[in-house]
Each structure stands twice: as structure tokens, then as C-alpha cells.
Amino acid sequence: MTAGSPAPPVPFGRAEAAGCIDVPEAGDDKYSRGVLGVLTGSDTYPGAAVLGVEGASRTGVGMVRYVGPPRAADHVLRRRPEIVTADGRVQAWLLGSGMPPERDEALQRQVDGILAQGLPTVLDAGALDLVGAAPGPVVLTPHFGELVPVLRAAGIETDKGRVAAEPERWAREAAAATGVTVLLKGSTTFIADASGSRWSVQAGPAWVATAGAGDVLGGVLGALLATHAQQLQEHPETLADLAAAAAWIHGEAGRRASAGGPIVALDIAEALPATIAALLA
């Protein structure tokens, strides 16, 4: 590394991920274990809501509150009847997966109310443009193409090909430009925050590149934010650690589910409990 050049990201692995799991103790209840609020999906893409909720539920939160549109809520409840579909107390939010690209007035009011709470928040897909309106701790989870408009809104011109060629650089530049933590998805996932590049994560086998896998990742990350909400208040710099842990756990669950063969996104979610149990063991 030459003088003045940015420090490279550090590889993030099993030992680091194990330190990011909040294991419940005797006396914990569903509230003390963390409650994640989820606003994802749409009438067109209800599956995104199902996959994100599934990922969060299987990562270890005490409760998930889903407050998305009715058709998506119906799909969520058919898959996970324990999900609460009413407003209430939460410790973190997951927004954006499967949301419509154009928010109507009612949805925008709902989003504004959520962001005003200032809680730790995952912004994915259809919510990436909200980065400037979110006052709390924020993680953006774009893929290469989704990062381009985020950078453009910050006054930085690039394109998908350039981002794909230098993902670590562009994750770092996006974090510096937006002031939030950026998890840039890819075969190697890069996590950066305002301090610069933080972590690189090998994101599982190539079979993980399947529709909906990113929705599951959003749920995993949302769960980790909800279970570490108190820690994030005291040590906001650990947000990048939790983002890297989510990427590692998601990739390892994909490896476990695949066993060398093809998988779908729901397979990754269903492999999460055994992945976390093995990690803790």
C-alpha cells in the first residue's frame, strides 16, 4: 500500500461472524430478543416480502412486524402465521425489497414516518433512493447496477461495468458520498462506511446468484440490526461488522443448502438455523 492510499478491506470469516450472533438467555422474551419492522414487497412482487421475512425469522429475532401491502401480507401470513401485521414497537427496519419504483402518496407517508423514527435501517432495492432522508444508522444493500443511481444522486458519474470492475473502490466512494454503510453485493461482497473500506466477504457458491437471494440477505441483515439495536446506539461503528456478518451467514447458508447443486432463494433461508447453530458450535 503506497502512502496516502486507502486501506484495503479485511477478509471477514467464521470467527468474526460468530461474534455477531446474539444468543438468547433464560428470561429473554420476544421484545428483548429484538423486533424487526419490515416494509417490503408490493402487489406485483409479494414474494420479495415473503423471502425477507423468512430470512429475518430464521436468523433469530423475537418478532417480525410486517406492514406492507395487503396482497403481500397475505402471502407472508400463509408462509409464516406468527408474523404480526400491525404497527408497534420495533428496534430496526428493513425497507425496499420488491417495493414499486414509484411510491404513491400513501406509501411515501408511511416511509417518511418510519424513517423519522431514526432506528437502524436496511435500505434495499426500491428504497435505496431514501438514503438522504434516513437520519438513523443505515446500511445500503445494492448490487452493481443499483449502485449507479445512488452515486449519480451524490454527483458521481459511473456505470455498471465500471462498478463491476472495481467494486471495492465504488463501495468506498458510495459510503463516503452518502455517509452511510454500504454493502455492495457480488461474488465477493464489499462493506464500506465513512471510515473507508472495512470488510470483504466471499459470498457463497455461484449457485447463490438466484432470484430472491438478495431479499433473504436483507432479512438476515435486518434481524442482526434488531438484535443489536442497543449495541448500535453505543457503538455505531459496529454497523459494518453486522453487515459483513449478514453477508457471511447468507453465503454459508447458500453453501449448506446447495451441497454443490442448484438452489432457490427459499432454500437459503431454510438453511439459516443450521448454519447459525454450526457457527455457534
Write the layout of secondary structure elements.
Layout: E1 10-11, H1 14-18, E2 35-39, H2 46-57, E3 63-66, H3 70-79, E4 92-95, H4 105-115, E5 121-123, E6 138-140, H5 144-153, H6 160-165, H7 167-178, E7 181-184, E8 188-193, E9 196-202, H8 213-227, H9 229-234, H10 239-258, H11 265-270, H12 272-280
Parallel strand pairs: 1-9, 2-3, 2-4, 4-5, 5-6, 6-7
Antiparallel strand pairs: 7-8, 8-9
Describe the structure.
With 281 residues, the chain is α/β, with parallel strands linked by helices. The termini are far apart. The radius of gyration is 17 Å and the shape is globular. It has a nine-stranded mixed β-sheet, sandwiched between helices. It has a single domain, classed as Ribokinase (UDP-N-acetylmuramoyl-L-alanine:D-glutamate ligase), CATH 3.40.1190.20. It has twelve helices and nine strands. It has helices spanning 14-18, 46-57, 70-79, 105-115, 144-153, 160-165, 167-178, 213-227, 229-234, 239-258, 265-270, 272-280; strands spanning 10-11, 35-39, 63-66, 92-95, 121-123, 138-140, 181-184, 188-193, 196-202. A hairpin with a 3-residue loop joins β7 and β8.
